[in-house]
Amino acid sequence: MLPLLRHARYVLSENPVTGLAFGLFAMFLVAAIFGPLIAPYNPLQSNAAMALKSPSAAHWFGTDQLGRDIFSRVLVATRLDLSIAFASVILAFMLGALSGVAAGYFGGWTDRVVGRLADTIMAFPLFVLAMGIVAALGNEVINIVIATAIINFPLYARVARAEASVRREAGFVEAARLSGNGEARVLLGHVLPNIMPIMMVQMSLTMGYAILNAAGLSFIGLGVRPPAPEWGIMVAEGANFIQSGEWWIALFPGAALMLAVFCFNLLGDGLRDIIDPRQRT
Amino acid sequence: MTAVPALAVEELSVEFRTRSGIVKVLDHVGFSVDKGETVALVGESGSGKSVTAFAVMGILDPAGKVTSGRALFGGADLLALSERDLAEQRGREFSMIFQNPRTALNPIRKVGQQIADVLVRHGGATRPDAPRAAVEMLKRVRIPDPERRVEAYPFELSGGMCQRIMIAIALACRPALLIADEPTTGLDVTTQAVIMDLIGELAHESGMATIFITHDLALAAEYCDRIVVMHAGHVVEAAPARELFAHPRHPYSVKLLAATPGETASLAELASIPGGLPDLRRPDLPACRYSDRCERRIDDCVKPLPNRSLGERHIVSCWNPL
Amino acid sequence: MLKLLLSRLATAIPSIVGVVVVTFMLTRLLPGDPAAYFAGLAASPQAIAEVRTKLGLDKSLPAQFVGYIVDLAHGNLGNSLSTGQPVVAEIATRLPASAELTLFALILAVGIAIPLGVLAAVKQGTWIDHLCRIVTTAGVSLPVFFTGLLFAYVFYYLLQWAPAPSGRLDVFLSPPTHITGFYLIDSALTGNMEVFWGALRQLALPAISMAIFSLAPLARMTRGSMLSVLGSDFIRTARASGLAPGTVVFTYAFRNAVLPVITVLGMVFSFLLGANVLVETVFAWPGIGLYAVNALITSDYAPVQGFVLTMAVLYVALNLAIDLLYGLVDPRVRLDS
C-alpha cells in the first residue's frame, strides 16, 4: 500500500491536473450529497413574475421560463445525474466483470456466448442502441441506467476476459485450485479480486461517458421527465431560448455537465497512471 | 605499411539524461578503423558498443547527448556536422546494419522499394531505374530469384533473407565504412556464418572499412583484424585479434576470453566475470570503471587512466596490466 | 483481395443476424401491450386489436420472428403513425441529410486530428503536444448537444456569422437537383454556387460540433501510434540510411502509424452516429436522427425501430469498409487471407 501511495504522490506531482480533478470530484460529491440542503431556492418552485431573468445577485445563474432558480436546479440535479451514471457503471461492472472473468477463466462455450453477446452489442452505434432500449423499456429513469449499463457491458467484459485469461495459469490461481478450492471459489475469491484495480480504472474511465450518455438520452426526452431537475433536460429546455438570446438557461446546466464529464475523464486518466502505468498513452 | 584510417574516433563522451539522473554512457572513447580493415567492438551488454555506433551515425536517442569528442571521417568531423549534412552522408558514405533484421525493415513496404528509396535518395539511381538497381543489389547479396524477391514484404522472408536485404540497403551506395551492430543475433548458427562471410567478401571486394559490434569474442576473432574491448563506456584494450587472444593484457580482457567458449575450452572451464557493470549514474565513478571488479587492483588505480602502448597497435588502459 | 472481401463479409453476417434479433427483441420488450403502443396513445380497443392482427402479435414468438424477417426482406419496416407513410420511404428520403452531415464531420475530424496527432508525436513535449492533450481531453468531455447550442448562440445570435440553426438550407433557397442527395455535391455538380455556399454555411456548425466530439480518439491514437512507430527499429534503419526526414516521417512512420488509427475509426463512427441524433435535434437538421426523436416524442414506435435498425446496418457496413481499408493499407492482412 505504501509504495502505491508514494507512486500516487509522484503521479500527482508529475500531473497537477489530476489534483484539480480530485478537487472537482470533491465539489461534485458535496453537491450530490448536500445539494438539496444548500440550494437557495426550491428547484421546482415556479414564479411567473421572475421568469427569464438573467443572472443576478439573487439568482446567480438566472431564472428559467417558469421563474425557477437555475442555480438551485443545477445544484440539485447533481445527485440525479451522478446517481444514474454511478448506478449504470456499477451495473455494467457487475454484469461485465462476472461474465468476462468467467469467459476468460473457463474458455469454451462460456467464452463464445459472452463474446457473441458483446459483439452483438458492439455492432450497434452505442448511443442509438441506448435510445432503442429506453424507447422499448419505457420512459423511466431506471431504464436509462439499464441502457447505459448494457452499452458499457462489452468494454468491461473484454477487459475482464483478457485479464482473467492471462491469470488463469498464474501461480496463485494454481495454488488456490490445488489447495482444494472449487472453481467458483477460485474465480470469485482469487481471480476477481486480482483484476479489481484494472476494473476500477475502467469504471472511472467510463463514468464520464455514462454521464454524457444519460444526459444525451434525457436531452432528447427519454427517461427523466420534467419538471425534475436534470442537466440534460435543462439544456433541452434552454435550447428553445438560445435563438432569442437567453443563454443562461442552457449554459449553466451544460457547463455543469461538461465539468462533471471532464472531471471524471481526468480522474480516470490519473487513476490509470497510478494503478496501471503501462497503459499510459 | 602506412594504413590510412577510414574513421578515427577520439575522446568521445556521451551522456543520457534520464529521470533518475545523468548516465555517463561513454567516457573518452577512442579507436580507429583503417581502410579495408575489419575492427570488432566487443564487450558485455551495456558496455557502450552500440551507443558508440549510434553517436558516430548521429542517430542517438533524443535523450542522449555527445558531450565531447570527434569522429574523423574523410577529413570531416561527423559529430560537428549539421543533421542535414549528416543525413546526406548516412547511407552513402557510411552505413549501418542492425540486429533483428525482421524488425529493422519497414513491415509494410516492399523490400525492393526500401532499397530503391536509399538509391534514389543518394543519387545511386533515378526513380525509373531504381527497380532494376534494386534487383542488382539483391544479386550482389546473393539472394536467389531476385526478380521475384524485390516484390516481397519483409514478413514473407526468413530472418537470414531479411539481413541480406539490410546489407543490400546498407551497401547500395558503396559506402567507405560499414557498422554492423550484432548482425547475426537472432539468426541460426549456419545462417550466422553465411551472413558473416557475405559481409567479409563484400567488404574485401570494395576495400570498405567495417566495424563489427558483438559480444561474441570467438566470432570477432574469426572475422576481424583487430579487436577493441569496451567496458562500461571505456575502451580498455585494443589489439590485433591474434595478439589479443594470445596475450591479453587488461584484466577484463583476460576474464572476457576466459568466458568465451573456444574450441578447446569445455563448459566446466568456462569462467564467469564476477560483479556487474558499475552504476553509471554515480557521481563518484572511479577513474577505472573496472576497478571494483578487478583482482589486480593496486593503489595507482584511483589515478586517471593511462593509455599504454604495448608494441605495435596494442594499447591498454590499465595501471597494472598483465 | 477478393478472398479478404469474402472473409470479411462472412464475419459481418453474424453481426447482421445479431442486429436483427436485437431489434426484433426490442419491439417485444415494450412494457404492457406492444399493440397498444404501436397503435398510438389515442387508439380505440378496436384499432388496437386491428394493429395486433396486422403486426402478427397474436401469433407465437417464433412465428412473429419469421413474419418480421419476411417483412424486412420485403423492405417493410411498418408505417409511421403520425404521417401514415411507410417508414422505409421516410428514412430513405432523410438518409442523405444525415449521411452528408456525418461524413462531413468525419472528414473534418480526420483532417484536424491526424495532423495534430502526428505533430504532437514528432514534436513531443512542445506546445503542440500539450495542445493535442487539451483538445483530446476536452473534446470527449463536451456534450455534443451543448457545444452545438453554444455555437448557435455565439455564431448565430451574437456574431451573426452563421445562419439560423434550422435545417439544411435557408428557406429562400431551393434545394439543388437531386443527384446524390448530398446538397454540397449536387449543387457543385450543377454549378449552383449560391446553393453550395448556402448549404455549406448551414452544415458548418453542426459538423464542427460533431467533429470536435469525435476528434479525441483519432488524435490520441495517432499520437500514440506515431510515437511507438517513431521509436521502432525500422525507423532507425531509415534514419541510418540517410533518408530525408520527410520520407522517414511520412512514407515510413506515418503509413505504419495509420494502421491502428484505422481500427479506431469504428469507434469514431459509433460516436458520430450517436452524436448525429443529438446534433440534428439542436440544428433542426432533417435527417433520420431528428425523425427518430420526433417519433419518440409522439410515441410513434415503428420509425424508432426502423431508425435503430438502419443505423445498426449502416454501422456494420461501415465497419466492413474499415476492415477492407485496413487490408488495403496493410499487406500482412491482405496477403495472409
TrEMBL record, chain A:
The chain crosses the membrane at residues 20-39, 82-105, 117-135, 205-224, 247-268. Residues 78-268 form the ABC transmembrane type-1 domain. It is a multi-pass membrane protein. Keywords: Cell membrane, Membrane, Peptide transport, Protein transport, Transmembrane, Transmembrane helix, Transport. One of its GO terms (cellular component) is plasma membrane. Gene3D superfamilies: MetI-like. GO terms for biological process: peptide transport; protein transport; transmembrane transport. The keyword Transmembrane applies. It is found in: Cell membrane. It comes from the Bacteria. SUPFAM superfamilies: MetI-like. It holds the Pfam family OppC_N. Belongs to the binding-protein-dependent transport system permease family. This is ABC transporter permease. It comes from Reyranella soli. The lineage of its organism: Bacteria, Pseudomonadati, Pseudomonadota, Alphaproteobacteria, Hyphomicrobiales.
Automatic annotation (TrEMBL), chain B:
It is found in: Cell inner membrane. Pfam families: ABC_tran, oligo_HPY. Belongs to the ABC transporter superfamily. Keywords: ATP-binding, Cell membrane, Membrane, Nucleotide-binding, Transport. Residues 9-257 form the ABC transporter domain. Coiled coil: none annotated. GO terms for molecular function: ATP binding; ATP hydrolysis activity. It is a peripheral membrane protein. InterPro entries: AAA+_ATPase, ABC_Ni/Peptide_Import, ABC_transporter-like_ATP-bd, ABC_transporter-like_CS, Oligopep_ABC_C, P-loop_NTPase. This is ABC transporter domain-containing protein. Signal peptide: none annotated. Gene3D superfamilies: P-loop containing nucleotide triphosphate hydrolases (3.40.50.300). Its main location: membrane. It comes from Reyranella soli. CDD domains: ABC_NikE_OppD_transporters. It comes from the Bacteria. One of its GO terms (cellular component) is plasma membrane. GO terms for biological process: peptide transport; transmembrane transport.
UniProtKB/TrEMBL annotation, chain C:
The keyword Transport applies. It is a multi-pass membrane protein. Pfam families: BPD_transp_1 (PF00528), BPD_transp_1_N (PF19300). InterPro entries: BPD_transp_1_N (IPR045621), MetI-like (IPR000515), MetI-like_sf (IPR035906). Residues 95-326 form the ABC transmembrane type-1 domain. It is found in: Cell membrane. Belongs to the binding-protein-dependent transport system permease family. This is ABC transporter permease. It comes from Reyranella soli.
